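Lab notebook, bench 4. Still working through the backlog of constructs that have no structural model yet. Next entry is a single chain of 249 residues. Request: give me the structure tokens for it.
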Amino acid sequence: MDFAPTPPSPTGSIEIEKTMEAQADRLCGLDEDSQISQVRKQFLVDKFLQHSAEVLQMCYKCFQRFGPDSVFFRVTGSPDPVVFSKGDPNENYDVIIDFDVLNNDPQTQEAKLRQLTELTAMDRTGRININALLDAAATSIDPVLADRILQPTEVAQQEVVKQVTDDLSKIFAGIEMPARPNGAQIALQIINQYASQPDIAARLQSDENFAARIQKYTAQYTFQLQQQQNAQIGRIGTEPAQVGDIQTQ
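Model written out:
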């Protein structure tokens, strides 16, 4: 008994599949050649985040009425812990979640950070928070790594002070130490204060080896500052303006 022959595959199946995929991409904003691709993606993301905000708002209302009096937690990107109190259960809060789809474009992010960095040359009154700019740049590169490597300014300064004083103690004991990779300005201030002490100044005059170690250690930090100034000179054409030891540019 013979069976009917198997019908051939439709020759237009591949073209139909590509056409349907292209239509789906256009609907979702995934057609990168389209001029309104970013607009479509932003619309879909905003729609999803608006729904998420409403869910979070309802969760918060439930927390206000049934949750504990306070919650201790940490926020990604913030090194300091937070204690959150639920407050009055009759209070109402607006929950807003925003996300710019252009943040997923590495070239766009790089251009944004470069423009913000260039703005620092125009800042004459200190309105730009350099530490906040550093946090934003590191977070845009990798928020997880930024959370691990960035530390509060006060902690960083205390760490530099501890490291430099430890180095100076070893240098005093006859051990030559290299400069740390950062914190040159703070380090030079500590070294100058250290060298101005009467007993240290006397030993610098009498002990050539000790003086040579201190001078080499100081020269390395001075070179770090010069490298930073050279980068600024390359941007503005001259040395930064300053009054005494304080830069005004």
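Notes after review: The two ends are 96 Å apart (CA to CA). Strands lie at 70-73, 82-85, 242-243, 246-247. Flag for follow-up if needed.
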